[in-house]
Amino acid sequence: MILDTVDTLSSLVLLSVLFAFGSSRIPALIKVIAFQGVVVSIVPFFIGHDMGTGGMVFTAATLVIRGILIPLSLHIAIKKVAIQRDVSPVIGYHASIFCGLALIVAATVISRRLNIPSISDAQLLFPTAISLLVTGMFLLMARRNAIAMVIGYIMLENGIYLMGTTFSVRALHIVEFGILLDVLAGVMIMAIILQNIKQTFDDVDTTLLRTLKE
Amino acid sequence: MVEIVFLTPFITGLLAFVLPRTLGRQLLVLTGVVHLVLSLLLWKNKPDAFFTGYFSVTPEGMLSLLVISLLFFLISIYTKTYLEHSNLPSENIFTGFMLLFLSTMTMVTLSDHIMVLWIAIEATTLASAPLIYTHRSGASLEATWKYVLICSVGIAMALLGSLFLTLAMDMAKVDVPMSFSALTPVAELLDPLWLKAGFVFILVGYGTKMGLAPMHTWLPDAHSEAPSPASALLSGVLLNCAYLGIFKTNKIMVAAGLHDFSGTILIVFGLISILAAATFILKQNEYKRMLAYSSIENMGIIAFGTGIGGIGIYGAVICMIHHSLIKSSLFLSSGNILMGYKDRLIANTGNMAQHMPKTFVAFFAGFAGISGFPPFGIFIGELFIIVGAFRAGHYVAAGIFIASLCVIFAGFANQVMKICFDPSAAAAPEPARFSEKASLVWPQYILLLTSLILCFFIPDALYQTIVDAVNAIGGGLQ
Q1: Residue A117's pLDDT is what?
Q2: Domain residues for A133?
Q3: Rounded average pLDDT over B420-441
């Protein structure tokens, strides 16, 4: 029963991944990462790792940061700078969705073959982690809007976190450690930078950030 | 108490934010002196860490630490005068982050736990981003954005790599602390598949920070936009710190008997970096970007030497030390050129030999050194690497290596000649605009002199440490 919950959650995340591939608007993407942030940080509770108090605190902190703080700050960022709400795709939406489907299939096939020992019962967990990771990379590369790139980066981190929960308690500790610092710092700085990009360039389209080039 | 070496600059860095600006400059030099003394004491006593398992003193760490300390001390002397000459906006922030940057880089050299190393490298990004943004212009903002974004993705990849290392431990049911010193002896027991995966991701992650092509795109922008003392630190020390992460992981790979796998990848990345540098250095029109591409080249050389193994690793470590010394001197000289000509374009400089003779000596000697001319150390390092490559039978790789070095030398020489001797200089600096104060040229002279002396005479303690570091990853002079 418990593992079914994990698989249900995973499949919802997979759907949100597909949605992220096809979404053209920043506010929708922010909702997607808020949802993913919440799901990713509550998954450890359902897996039955023996986490201890420290682990609980970390998980709760992750939940607050991923699920609330980051989406909120991104929301404020787009309100403040009143930017265009379009993600300016390099690769079109239909092609993107097709990429997303291909990715999910590939992730499922790969994770079957890798044969990870620890929690092979939750079938969808590892494919979901890979999908999140690659989706993050995809958004970083195939979207020109700076906020969309930040969202891609956070999705990438969510993927790593989920992968950590899949393996073992030790792996979970590793991702907890790093990612909290990572998210906090990365987003803070990126938000400040975004504000300034707005002031300097009047827009967050990174095509404008192309004066230094080879 | 090893930790005091990085805690001191951390505390003074925080202090520098609140102190008045002139006092901040003094604090910078003072911290440089204290840090150098602490590092020398560390060399002498080799104390144990307070948090064993997280920090430890390793030969490769000691080497990097000494280089950092010496460089920072000399750069701080330069910076003091540099700050008097250039009106940086919010100087407190600049000095504060310089010190925090020093603290985080020192932490990298002393860390032993895989996650502590990761956190320290992540922290170097945080501490150095504001340095790149010092000038607050559109271009510096763009450089900072690129730097933070690309390095964050890199650091995320390194985290994934570290995660795979834990998986390699779990699969093999190895239960030891996750520190390099604990993992290396049991490396053979680890699951080879996940160990390889971990190494690849860690190499890509830290390689981004180190400036290996094709992940190098942030490097020329960041180095050209940062103020020259910060560029000197970025190029001279930060890149080494990232290399240290790869070096330590490679140690586990070698201990696990996977050195063929890791060596091949390092050789490929090294050669791509050298080729990329050779391609881009030919058409550079800014001198700081040219120096940045030369850093990419040298990082490629170091990765290549490490991949070759044997005597090549010894060459790589020699190259690493001398690259830091020479390249930081070049970046400091480029700061003088920028102050003198007020322009970053090579086309708008010229005839420096006449206008700024002291800077010219430092810049030209630095150019000779970085291009691998004797009597500077890079010559010896590159020679060892080439000999190592031939011994190991990598004839094609060695051929590409030598050809690229020639191209880079030609491109570099062409630009340097323009800067130094071109008489048709459009805007010659008036002597009144920039006077070559002693503290703006002597740090470069000392750096170059150190490189020169180390070429002929290496103190026993230093030599022994280099050999220890090299032996640990299966290299050696034989």
Answers
A1: 64
A2: 2-208
A3: 71
Q: Which two tokens stand for residue A201?
A: 């360039």
Residue A214 lies in a domain: no
Quick check: helix, strand or coil at residue B418?
helix
Amino acid at A171: A
What residue of A is the nearest CA neighbor of B130? A189
The single-letter DSSP state of residue B90 is S
Using CB atoms, pick whichever of B118, B126, B156 lies closest to residue A156: B156
Residues of B whose CB is below 8 A from A189: 126, 129, 148
Q: Which of B:224-243 have CB within 8 Å of A? A: 224-225
Report, as an integer, the average pLDDT of A41-54: 76
Give residue B86's identity as a one-letter amino acid code: S
CA separation, residue B28 to residues B77, B96, B262 (Å): 8, 9, 40
- Angle (CA) A199-A200-A206 rounded to 5° is 105
**Structural domain total, chain A:** 1
CA-CA distance, B24 to B98, in Å (whole number)? 11
Give, in degrees to the nearest 5, the angle at Cα A160 between A154 and A164: 140
* pLDDT above 80 (res A49): no
What does the pLDDT read at residue A203? 53
Angle at A177 between CA A176 and CA A180, to 5 degrees: 75
Residue of A146, A153, A174 with shortest CB distance to B163: A174
CA distance B283 to A175: 43
Range in A165-174, B42-51, B461-470 the model is least confident about: A165-174
Q: What is the pLDDT of residues B203-219, one digit of tens each?
A: 999 999 999 988 899 99
Q: What ipTM, to 2 d.p.?
A: 0.87
The yes-or-no verdict on residue A205 having pLDDT over 90 is: no
Whether the pLDDT of residue B90 is over 70: the answer is yes
Say if A213 falls within a structural domain: no
Phi, psi of A98 (to 5 degrees): -60, -45
- Which residue among A157, A171, A201 sits closest to B156, beta carbon to beta carbon? A157
Q: For residue A104, is it within any domain? A: yes
Number of other CB atoms surrounding residue B434 within 10 Å = 20
> What phi and psi, each to the nearest 5 degrees, are found at residue B111?
-80, 145
B288 contact A CB<8A: no
List residues bridging with B179 in a β-sheet: B113
* Closest-CA residue to A147 (of A75, A66, A64, A40): A75
Query: Residue B260 phi/psi, 5° resolution?
Result: -65, -45
Share of chain B above pLDDT 90, in %: 53
